[in-house]
Amino acid sequence: MLYKAEENPVVKPTDVKPSMDGYEVLGAFNPGATLFKEEILLLLRVSERCTQKQGYVRVPVYRFDNGKPHPDILEIKNDDPDLRLKDTRGVFYRGRDYLSSMSHIRIARSKDGIHFTVDEHPFIYPTFEWEEYGTEDARITKINDKYYINYTAISRDSWATALCVTEDFIDVKKLGLIFHPENKDVAIFPEKVNGKYIALHRPNNSGFGKASIWYAESPDLLHWGQHRCIARPRDNEWESMKIGGGAPPLKTDEGWLIIYHGKGDNSKYSLFTMLLDLNEPWRVVKRATKPLIIPTEKYEIEGFFGNVVFSNGVVEKDGKVYIYYGAADEVSCVAITDTKTLLESLDW
Question: How far are the Cα atoms of 149, 260, 273 from residue 250, in angstroms, in the given order?
Fold first, then answer.
């Protein structure tokens, strides 16, 4: 069986302290997840905007003063002739785009996988210009004793995928961009296959085809090649716009189990399962015909961007599988199931 926890949402914006005075938290969603020292850790995407001031437009920015980054506020008078309001997502000022909100990654901790305490300070946040507009949507892969975290890095040059590594979730080392703009939804496998590191990724399609799930290989987690498209959107209401990978895959006797997302009619997001061959991970063995999770609850249907369920993190613990997902681009939730149920869903 699969069920959504009665305690959902397990993390809400009100559970998160703003990263600085003058900021307010809009969302705590799309968490990466892992098991660390008997705790389940979530890496939340925390979205913040500036509190507004009459007569001004205020947007969050990161400053890099003498090589040291810090959050700040760009304040522009409403009647400034160089100001142009683009839409709800940002402004254009003096030849440059700015976002109306900015994200960083924050740790939340739980003993039971349901009740979480959120750290007071950001964990992954802009420290380089290639992520100056925010860090989003972390995914965690444990390889040996290290935890590799890939995330979407936003800058004036668009969005790309970056990689960092930690052993203790205190100190983190950034390794740089591993997939160039515009590419995201990267899921790194937890072990090598045929002597290579393996990942799924999702390059953007501009005017030709629809965004799909791709496969890549690497000798060192930094340099990726052997790219090939392995799954495209199907002609149905759930995947009519695009698809993309989710959390790092679960290894089963039957194959690599993937939970991926589809964006369908009316921009509704849902989650599906797919099975890849253990030794040829670019080969799809099975793919569910019906969604695993769809937006049905109020917290999934209504929010910052409604009718969205989006998963970056899956944890196996005590015979259960905890699927952590963002809902309505605002809150974090969990659905609980087991491997058997997920494999059976491939026949739905």
Answer: 16, 12, 11
What is the spatial distance between Cα 30 and Cα 203, in angstroms, rounded to a whole number? 19
Q: Number of helices (H) and strands (E) in the chain: give both, helices first.
A: 2, 26
Residues in the chain: 348
**Order of strands, sheet of 96-99, starting from the edge strand that comes earlier in the sequence:** 83-87, 90-93, 96-99
Tell which residue, 46, 69, 48, 33, has the closest CA to residue 169. Answer: 33
* CA-based max dimension of the chain: 64
* Closest to 136 (Cα-Cα) out of 156, 116, 159: 159
Copy the structure tokens of residue 164. 């960092």
- Residue 130: how many other CB atoms lie within 10 Å: 18
pLDDT digits (tens, 9 = 90+) for 200-210: 999 998 878 99
Nearest to 343, CA basis, from 317, 321, 311? 321
pLDDT digits (tens, 9 = 90+) for 221-253: 999 999 999 999 999 999 999 999 999 999 999
The pair of structure tokens assigned to 324 is 């952590």
Among residues 120, 137, 136, which one has the least CA distance to residue 325? 137
Please state, in angstroms and rounded to a whole number, the distance separating the CA atoms of residues 138 and 153. 10
Query: What CA–CA distance (Å, rounded) separates 250 from 322?
Result: 12
Q: How far is CA 58 from the centre of its chain?
A: 26
Predicted structure pTM score: 0.97
